[in-house]
């Protein structure tokens, strides 16, 4: 049985003060269950990335509440001041660019964060190889990012996002730099991860061709989030 992995209540994000105060997100309320792949769509500048970064404990909201799993992390203020710890333990990020470190090989790119978080080299490399096998690129473990295609590098970026075994994946335009065939492959991969790893995935996208592959669509409309 699925359970709520993300819950947002009355979330507000404003910029500026006084007469120049502008609401970007106004009283957004929604939830996402484990196993779901959710598309987040809106026109440019409507606050998609801002909303994603608030859920990811990177951008501080103006007001509202956020639950990640069973933990309430925000209630008009951060309830845990160590937001980096929340991100390490609960969230995997995937971006439009893969942001792999060019002077590290593929397996070292994936193991860097788990080892920084205290995981042993042996354990982190074991997990990394399992992920590379899962994504069918284990033969590239010792290759450098420059030796891989764009689609392969994006698969490595997804593997890196899963290295700490998060229950939430936040993907900001993960297919923007890929052609249609590779884009479909990446989105199907995210759906597979959601189901098999029991992860909640929110994916920001401009590509309407990807929407039928998602379970639900959230849209920012007039500063509100509608399903």
Question: Mind explaining what this structure looks like?
Answer:
The chain is of the alpha/beta class and 227 residues long. Helices cover 31% and strands 28% of the residues. The protein contains six helices and ten strands, in the order E-E-E-H-E-E-H-E-H-H-H-E-H-E-E-E. It has helices spanning 48-55, 83-90, 106-116, 121-134, 150-162, 180-196; strands at 4-15, 22-33, 37-41, 63-68, 71-75, 91-94, 168-172, 200-204, 216-221, 224-226. The strands form two sheets. The chain has a six-stranded mixed beta sheet. A four-stranded antiparallel beta sheet has the order 2-1-4-5, with helices on one face. Strand 1 (4-15) and strand 2 form a beta hairpin. It starts with a strand and ends with a strand. The model has no long low-confidence stretch (mean pLDDT 89).
Describe the structure using short key phrases.
single chain; 227 residues; alpha/beta; six-stranded mixed sheet; four-stranded antiparallel sheet; 31% helix
- What best-fitting shape do the alpha-carbon axes yield? globular
Global Rg = 18 Å
| Structure classification | alpha/beta
Mean of the pLDDT scores? 89
How many β-strands, per DSSP?
A: 10
User: Strand fraction band?
Assistant: 25-35%
Give the low-confidence spans: none
How do the strands of the widest beta sheet line up side by side?
A: 6-7-8-3-9-10
* Pattern of helices and strands: EEEHEEHEHHHEHEEE
Major sheet description: 6 strands, mixed
Number of helices: 6
Distance between the termini: 22 Å
The helix content is: 25-40%
């Amino acid at each position: 049985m699925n359970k709520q992995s993300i819950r947002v209540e009355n979330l507000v994000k404003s910029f500026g003060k006084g007469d120049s105060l502008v609401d970007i997100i106004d009283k957004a309320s929604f939830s996402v269950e484990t196993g779901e792949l959710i598309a987040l769509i809106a026109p440019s500048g409507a606050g998609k990335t801002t909303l994603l970064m608030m859920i990811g404990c990177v951008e501080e909201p103006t007001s509202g509440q956020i639950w990640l799993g069973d933990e309430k992390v925000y209630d008009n203020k951060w309830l845990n001041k160590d937001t980096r710890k929340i991100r390490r333990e609960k969230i995997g990020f995937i971006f439009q660019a893969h942001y792999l470190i060019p002077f590290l090989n593929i397996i070292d790119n994936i193991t860097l964060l788990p080892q920084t978080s205290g995981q042993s080299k042996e354990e982190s490399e074991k997990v990394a190889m399992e992920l590379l096998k899962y994504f069918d690129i284990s033969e590239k473990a010792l290759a450098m990012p420059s030796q891989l295609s764009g689609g392969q590098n994006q698969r490595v970026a997804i593997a890196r996002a899963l290295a700490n075994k998060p229950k939430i994946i936040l993907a900001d335009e993960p297919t923007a730099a890929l052609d249609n065939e590779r884009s479909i492959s990446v989105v199907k991969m995210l759906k597979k991860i959601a189901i098999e790893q029991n992860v909640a995935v929110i994916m920001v996208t401009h590509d309407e061709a990807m929407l039928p592959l998602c379970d639900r669509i959230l849209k920012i409309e007039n500063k509100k989030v509608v399903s």
